[in-house]
Design goal:
heterodimer; A: mainly alpha; Beta Polymerase, domain 2
Chain lengths: 350, 75
């Protein structure tokens, strides 16, 4: 069952002006609920842009339009700054001979995927570098006053596998934080999707701003929502990701053959099938449904038991004295409080 | 009820009541999910620091019952 407000939002974002009131009675729309729903998906600027584009502002109260217009204007101004800062950062990295590619929202904005730069809400500038440049980029960023905020934290054991990204950095003279990635997903998921897909792009000489191709952006958008944002494990959908895919309009990737062979992509499109946004008729039989359900349960178990760093903590225990000491303290505490079994279960199940 | 009216009239140190603030921003601001303001406010967006590696379950999870992290507000 889709809420009326969500049906209305979907119509505004993805359908032509003539179909906006299909299945919706405008008098029953609760505009406060619409704001809560849309802002939860970080889609208020996109909502305003589509209302303007489809010339349907007469359907809304004036104060509603004024409010979302102000949100859109602030976001647009912020994105203009973000693009400027991304260009400056790119120049800095080129100067220092560090090959890089922008990712996620910044890449979508730089690739002109959106009709208007105010549509997409972006938190930070994500970019990926090659593993060999890790130390080099740390020095370059330190030298240029991009500071990490987690220096004051308790020193953690150096991760066994390459982390997804280096700590987020902020330059106090700039507005947007940056996040240098070394990989695309956390360890454990790299068999599904990894930076090897970008090796040909890294081979090219990078002299200007560079972004991955559209089919890569399509895949990254889905995997980033399904794995780090937990779309595969928790039953929910994100209109920001759906809108990105819609705007990418990547016909090469949006084929039934491409989607049905990948459980993550299939799950993404099956979850949003009820909205009828993409013209995809995914074939499913009883057996394929059973197969997908079993596979999903196995993948969920894998994610819960093994890759919450627990597997690595257990490996590190015999060789890391401070970690062993902390673990023993924890065990002693829970043993004395008679909650050891409960704690162990909770720790394993995460 | 009494507390509500106190909340609405109590002056903040910078001289604006909550009622005045809501009037200025419009009633819809009260229905907007925090994430939107976090992204639009540069200082708060910068502070939304993501840890590059998963938290250390031995150190950082004292109760052992970490709630699921909300979906990413990043790029």
């Amino acid at each position: 069952m889709i809420a009326l407000e969500e049906k209305f939002l979907v119509n505004i974002l993805y359908r032509p002006a003539s179909e906006i009131l299909n299945g919706v009675d405008i008098n029953t729309i609760n505009f406060e609920k619409l704001v809560t729903l849309t802002s939860g998906h970080l889609m208020l600027p996109a909502l305003f842009f589509n209302i303007q584009k489809k010339k349907i502002s007469y359907l809304f109260p004036e104060d509603f339009i004024a409010y979302i217009k102000s949100i859109y204007a602030i976001n647009k101004a912020r994105n203009e700054i973000l693009l400027e800062e991304a260009k400056e950062l790119s120049e800095l990295l080129v100067e220092n001979n560090i090959k890089h590619l922008f990712l996620k929202g910044t890449a979508l904005l730089l690739s002109n995927v959106f009709e208007d730069i105010g549509e997409r809400m972006i938190g930070d500038i994500d970019f990926i570098i090659q593993g060999k440049d890790e130390e080099k980029i740390k020095k370059v960023l330190e030298k240029n006053k991009y500071c990490s905020k987690i220096t004051g934290h308790i020193k953690k054991p150096k991760p066994v596998l390459i982390p997804k990204h280096l700590p987020r950095r902020v330059n106090k003279n700039k507005k947007i934080a940056i996040e240098p990635h070394l990989e695309l997903l956390c360890p454990g998921w790299r068999g599904v999707f990894n930076s090897k897909r970008l090796s040909s792009a890294f081979k090219e000489n990078i002299k200007a701003i560079k972004t991955p191709n559209q089919s890569f952006l399509f895949d990254h958008c889905i995997y980033a929502f399904q794995i780090p944002d937990k779309g595969f494990f928790i039953p929910y959908h994100g209109h920001r990701s759906i809108y990105d895919i819609y705007k990418l309009d990547c016909k090469k990737s949006l084929t039934i053959n491409n989607i049905k062979k990948d459980i993550f992509k299939k799950h993404f499109f099956l979850t949003i099938e009820k909205f009828n946004i993409f013209d995809l008729q995914l074939p499913y039989s009883f057996w394929s449904l059973c197969h997908d359900k079993c596979l999903r349960v196995l993948i969920t178990l894998y994610s819960k038991l093994i890759f919450k760093n627990k597997f690595f903590v257990l490996i590190l225990l015999p060789c890391n004295k401070s970690l062993r000491k902390r673990a023993l303290n924890k065990i002693k505490y829970h043993y004395s409080n008679k909650t050891l079994l409960n704690y162990t279960y909770k720790w394993l199940m995460g | 009820m009494k507390e509500d009216s106190k909340d609405l009239t109590e002056k903040a140190p910078y001289g604006i009541t909550r009622k005045e603030a809501l009037q200025k921003m419009g009633k819809y601001a009260a229905f907007t999910v925090m994430g939107t303001f976090v992204i639009l406010n540069p200082k708060k967006a910068q502070a939304q620091s993501a840890d590059p590696v998963d938290p250390d379950p031995v150190l950082d999870d004292p109760g052992g019952a970490t709630p699921p992290t909300p979906p990413g507000w990043g790029g």
